Amino acid sequence: MEKLYEGKAKIVYPGPEAGTYRVYYKDDATAFNAQKRGTIAGKGVVNNRISAQLFRYLEAHGVPTHFLRELSEREMLVRQVEIVPLEVIVRNRTAGTFAKRYGVEEGRPLARALVEFSLKNDALGDPLIYDEAALALGLLSEGELARIRELALRVNEALKAFFLERGLELIDFKLEFGRLPDGTIVLADEISPDTMRLWEVGTGEKMDKDRFRRDLGGVEEAYQEVLRRVVGGAG
Ligand code: CDP
């Protein structure tokens, strides 16, 4: 089947029905704008299953998404959208790039949840972008920007509660949004340990891609453990 697009972690194919795509999740892992490359065995299965579960949960909590259904262990069916070229990052505690940029230690709680935007452009290293610049460049409308911010904060509230019930704290995450043909904004891309930071409550253990980025070991085990908790329910 002809590929429509191949990214770092996923491949997009035409879907079986008009207006759909089939998304295949790979084991390939990259970090630091693809300067570090590797594979995480079983990651594609884990990320497909976690993303599917979280999309279903978010739909039930008032967040429209591109997700339609799981097709196989590594594949999901999604609605075709036009991706808004912004990475929408939500933060609850300082970590990663944010901690470095402002010279603060990792793990400091933020006084309020923060929504940040980066331009989706690998060649430029996904630079941080102001709301005003995104609007001036015509990347989206003011109404879309307000809707994306509202949905990002709703996702944060829903996922924080979801993970806390499973002994994990949601530190930060990245979302992407898309437009349906009628202009409706929906959550797209994936939500997985590749795109979130999750710290185990009590121990502070990192249960996400930072284990790969920082060579902490136990990468596969952490991904499997997150999957176990996500599908296993609260408790
Ligand atoms: O991950 P890094 O320190 O480079 O950047 P960050 O801005 O601190 O990342 C915030 C959150 O967004 C983390 O959970 C990252 O995993 C996620 N992220 C992502 O999934 N894709 C990107 N291109 C950038 C960040």
Automatic annotation (TrEMBL):
InterPro entries: SAICAR_synt/ADE2_N, SAICAR_synt_PurC, SAICAR_synth, SAICAR_synthetase, SAICAR_synthetase_CS. The keyword Ligase applies. Transmembrane segments: none annotated. It comes from Calidithermus roseus. It holds the Pfam family SAICAR_synt. Belongs to the SAICAR synthetase family. This is Phosphoribosylaminoimidazole-succinocarboxamide synthase. GO terms for biological process: 'de novo' IMP biosynthetic process; cobalamin biosynthetic process.
